[in-house]
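Q: Given only this backbone (161 positions), what sequence would you predict?
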C-alpha cells in the first residue's frame, strides 16, 4: 500500500509583524501613554495579563486594533519579577524567611530589553523607520531598535491571541 504524504507549506502562511525592542525604566502604563501621545495610537491595558508557563510568570500587555490599517499594535513587558520566600535554616529560636526576587523574561534572547512593541502587519521599511524615529524622540526611552523576528528562537512567546 503506498504512503501518502501531505505537504502543508502553502497552507499555513507565516504571520508577518514588526518587532521593536524598547529599553527604558518607566512603568508600563507611563510608556503606553507616551507611545500613544507620540505615535497617535490608542494602546489600552488588556483585562488579563499575558500568562506564560501556566501562571508561573505573567507579563503586562497593552493592545490597540487599528481598523483603518488592519493592524494590531501590542506593547508587552519582557520582564516578570516574582517574589518568593525561602526558608533559612539557622539554629535559632525563630523561623526565618528570606525574600528572593526571581526575574524571568518573555524573550530570553533579549534579557536587557524591558518592553517589546509588536505591530501585526508587515510594514514597509520607511514606515517602520518613521515609527522607530518617533519612539526614539521620547526622552524616557534610552534606546529602541528593530528586531528580525525570523531570527528569534522563542518567537512562539509572541503569540498573544
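A: Predicted residues:
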Amino acid at each position: 500500500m503506498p504512503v501518502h504524504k501531505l505537504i502543508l507549506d502553502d497552507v499555513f502562511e507565516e504571520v508577518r509583524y514588526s518587532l521593536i525592542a524598547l529599553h527604558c525604566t518607566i512603568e508600563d502604563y507611563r510608556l503606553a501613554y507616551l507611545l500613544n501621545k507620540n505615535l497617535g495610537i490608542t494602546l489600552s491595558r488588556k483585562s488579563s495579563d499575558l500568562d506564560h508557563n501556566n501562571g508561573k510568570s505573567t507579563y503586562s500587555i497593552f493592545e490597540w486594533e487599528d481598523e483603518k490599517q488592519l493592524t494590531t499594535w501590542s506593547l508587552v513587558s519582557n520582564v516578570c519579577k516574582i517574589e518568593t520566600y525561602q526558608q533559612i535554616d539557622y539554629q535559632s529560636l525563630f523561623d526565618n524567611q528570606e525574600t528572593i526576587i526571581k526575574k524571568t523574561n518573555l524573550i530570553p534572547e533579549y534579557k536587557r530589553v524591558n518592553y517589546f512593541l509588536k505591530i501585526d502587519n508587515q510594514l514597509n521599511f520607511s514606515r517602520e523607520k518613521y515609527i522607530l524615529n518617533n519612539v526614539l524622540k521620547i526622552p524616557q526611552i534610552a534606546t529602541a531598535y528593530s528586531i528580525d523576528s525570523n531570527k528569534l528562537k522563542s518567537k512562539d512567546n509572541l503569540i498573544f491571541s
